[in-house]
Fold each of these.
Amino acid sequence: MLEFILERGNYWAIIALMMIGLYIAFAATNLIKRLIGLGLFQTSIILFYTSLARIDGGTAPILFGNDYKKDKGHGDDYAAGADHAGDAADAAYGAAKAYGEASIENVYSNPLPHVLMLTAIVVGVATLAVGLAIIVRIREAYGTVEADEIRAMDLEVAIAEAAADTERGKAGTV
Amino acid sequence: MIEFISSLVPEDLAAHAPALLIAIPMLMAPIAAFMPSGRIAWILSILATGFSLVMAIVLLSQVQSIEGGAVISYAMGGWQPDAGIEFRIDALNSMVLLLVSAIGFLAAIFSWPTVQAEIRDAKTAMFYAAYLVCFTGLTGVASTGDAFNLFVFLEISSIATYVLVALGATRDRRALPAASNYLLMGTIGASFFVVGVGFLYAATGTLNMAELAVRLQGVQDSKAVFAGYAFILVGLGIKAAMFPLHQWLPNAYAYSPSFVTMFLAATATKVAIYALVRFLFTVFGLEFSFEGSTLIWILMPMGIAAMIACSFQAVFQTDVRRTLAYSSVAQVGYMLLGISIGTAAGVSAGLFHLVNHALIKGALFMALAGVVLTYKGTSLQDMRGLGRSSPWTMTAFAIGAVSLIGIPLTAGFQSKFALVNALFEHDWWWAVAVVMFSSLLAVVYMGRILEAVFFRAPTNPNKRHKEAPLIILIPLWILALANIWVGVQGGFVAGLAEDAAASLFIGGAP
């Protein structure tokens, strides 16, 4: 049982980070803290993807050693034999496919989740930037970044509006 | 009509329609941002969305060229689907694309007077750039065949939407907290979705949706797939304003610039529902979705709760925009109810209502934009007597309202009728009663507004005859007449929805 738990340490860490982030995002009244929580939440997702990609004993997915030499060899052969560039590209693609099945010697981590997370990081940065910009505007318009104070102010405005509305309603029916 | 337009488009252009549909608005966005005057940016955005509309029509005719609906697979950048990103257009995609681009085109045309009135001059060019980015994201979600790419497009559209909503602050500062709330909820929703996609990738090793559907058949008992399913359902549920997850919507709709409200109400939640349908039926497959019983025990009660609770909330709002916003959540409930039946007739009714609701809410919010432009306020008191002072705007509003209630000869009636038929076929007669009850509530909340508009004296006697400008009236009446056209002769849209549902049941579940 203990082994079962410890083996999945990375997932426990991810779940803990995710829940902490989610809790901050909902529970904090300070809008900036909420964004920090959101950032934590998104970062835990990045951890999740990258830990999915890890393979025991795997290294960074860049060809080296014999794999690299083979790759060079293949490329040269095809480039020499091929008549034009399009064929060479096709052949290189075919060679890359062949690698996937058999002839790779070293163990590499799966590069795809890492690439996906590059995109996710960009999305996260864009969200954070927009969020901070909105908070700057909130601070200009309300003079505070505390969500409950903002809500209280909005409530006052809404009550005043409703009162004015009923006044006008009475005036209209007369 | 469709054949005629698509025959005008050159062959080479038509072959790359799936890519161009998205690429042109995306490339236009930075160009529009650097335009010295907002007017040029406006014209650019009309051109870009108009081009997308033509491309959507071309795609529709390509899909319809084969009996039962062709599936267009477009390898983005020449990378074949296994390695690259695939754009996959079938009957469902082409329907959603046509809807989004048509609404986007009409919205772009009508936007100029309201944007001029509500956005500072220095910002209008940027505003249109954000609009084009949002449009790009929505069309991207509706055409991609790659699960992670769908997340990216979803976030592209959402981030642009947060900006657009926040720009309502020049009219009312409450737009800012609304936008910040929407940002929080929307980002959490998208992140949930991406966690779900991660689980699916871990279980299958692919991100292509068609491939996912095939490989998931083999790992149906895996806990990872169940976790992924739950995350994706909740994530897309937030984006689609599924009942308990809709808290971001009313404020975002009430305080954003009126053009943005109109565009979002007619497209954003619809695209999220499309994504939900795509995952439930194509990726996970009907059997999996039903074995977990989620469609019946989660989606259906949520839909019914939305129909009743949010209709009640709509009745008690004093601001017309908030009334319509709550009614939007209620209408999402109808669509979810239709989808949760899980038969071809039910899904087709849900999708039919999706299109009709876009037409209805598009017309209603467009008319309200005209009201905001000419009379500033949108509270129930402000609406009094407008029927006399701006008859053309308000007649179109009334057509939309009647269609929302679902009175015969309007679009709303056709799709509710289809929904009721599907419910009867499935022996859910009690759900029919709920639909009827919710429609009665719609009579109450729309009736209040119509009464104020047509049968009350104006609160401000100085209000003279003051119509919305022609550039608003023309798109508004196109949408209003579309409501009547679909209501009288609903064959075209109903056919699209039926084809879309059929493609889900034949192509998706082997």
Amino acid sequence: MWEYTDKVKDHFLKPRNVGEIENPDGMAEVGSIACGDMLKITFKLDEHKRIKDAKFKTFGCASAIAAASALTEMIKGMTIEEAAHVTNQDIAEYLGGLPDAKMHCSVLGRQALEQAIGYYKGGPVERPEEKIICECFGVTDKEIERAIRENNLHTVEDVTNYTKAGGGCGSCHTEIQTIIDTVYAGTKPPPKPKLTNIQKIRLIEETMEREIRPILRHDGGDIELIDVIENRVLVALRGNCAMCQASGQTMKLLVETKLHELVSSELTVEEVS
Amino acid sequence: MNTIYLDNNATSQVAPEVVEVMLPYFHELYGNPSSMHSFGGQVAARIREARAHIATLIGATPEEIIFTSCGTESDNAAIRSALAAVPDKRHIVTSRVEHPAIKVLGEHLAKHGFRITQLPVDGEGHLDMVAYKKSLTIDTAIVSLMWANNETGVLFPVEEAARIAHERGIIFHTDAVQAAGKIPIDMHASTIDMLSISGHKLHAPKGIGVLYVRKGTKFAPFLIGGHQERERRGGTENTPGIIGLGKAAELALHHMEKENTYVKDLRDKLERELLERIPRSHINGDRHNRLPNTTNISFEFVEGEAILLMMNELGICASSGSACTSGSLQPSHVLRAMGVPFTMAHGSIRFSLSVYNTEEEIDFVIEALPPIIENLRALSPFWDTDERTGTAHSQSRTRGPGESSPP
């Protein structure tokens, strides 16, 4: 049994805005009966270009019906620009949350809204380079990538919960993992340019002064740069740090992490007395 | 709100008579049947009686009954034992519509050096006997085919299948978890080597099962430990469970005729009335060759979970083969194997009755369900309320890319 919030149950048992608007300004149909979810939304604007009315029809489970009902309630009164900013998270939050395995219902709502806005603006949004990754549910690489970014997804299971991709035969799991890896690889900082020795030493000193000393001084300790030989950074601990049993570990971890992050990942730190 | 329980293939209520005979074994007669003192020893005598009742229910001898913890354990023990008995053989034959206790176990073993054939079924859920005969090889260690399908109630010709396996010297196991207690089973007249039973499907409690092992069949224990169950299943006996199952077996035998008349009539009435009152509804599976208590009906253009939750509001309990209730994102593997179209698979509801259901309950469901389906169809983009008919964009069969026949 799914753990639905009272709000989900309410919108499922008493769905708002069921139906279709005649001559709508925006409309969209997403999903398919094969996938087990299908949503059709229509909306009409008033003279101030605000969404005056929105209606839906859904084939799907309780949370799909609730998400569609919630979506139509949410966008009423919004301008097109405002509606374009509604995310699947907003829909889920409006309902007080959805079970993980049901998040795809909120994604379906966002997709429908987006396409309906595209219809209003004149034809569907062009997506030239999309590739179907999940054959079972017809999910493309762009949709997967977007769900990963917007919902901070890290595992194939997460992706399946949010997009259904990978929920069928499972043969696309490797490809989904590759997309996840690519998305997060993109967030890592670009490789740093090669430093001269002078630049390197200056950067190490700056980093120690700015990032490391304040932390050590907080505990009554200090650190001194003794020498830099190739990628070996020789340092000496002063004050409380010099007496501290755990200092070797602490220092190595702290100093190395900071230097790797801000100077070069090739540096190793050694303590000398 | 009264509960109308039509989900007996999921689990069943423990019969009041069963509860009654079990109770003393928790607090008063709690002795260990293996003990030397008579306080424990008297319990061993009661276990012997319970074993005899189970044996009677399925036409076996008491020595052929091994008590286990559940149907899944019985299935695991049977398959593992057969594989251990013929260690040079690495092939397992089963079907695509088995309960996960067999299906997933087979898929697990396939990752550990065994070869598995999952036999196809036709649109009515019948086993493909031609494919079955072809699948058997000199390398086949065991065939495991369910007696009755838990989702559709469709019966497999297990006796014939067992004979075919034996002609080739292959061990035959059947998962009879849904069949036991609902239809007559006579192991004396049968050639089936091993058979699994689960207590909670026949009004005994959860946590007790049986594996029948024909006399003379090589058996390697699954749970290794003490000398219980004649060294075929280690672990102190679940005394209350065994006593309860004994009573449940006695009752099942007593109710067998009622199951196949009274329960069947209620099921048939429910089915007939729903099909008549709800357009675009269909039965899944062979309606003539199935359990008397089960019906699996698809209501096109609506989704099963939504139907279940609407029924839940009225206290009606049933199951669905829709994607949203299957624990995966695809509809039930049974309906997919049968090639049931998506429009129907997602809207499938299984009603499974028991002798405890009344005609009033069935009448209530017959009145309650049509408006539920109508209301949900009013929400469905595939349904035309004025025309009272629907159109689906995808009429494709449910055999998707993940459903190609295994090698």
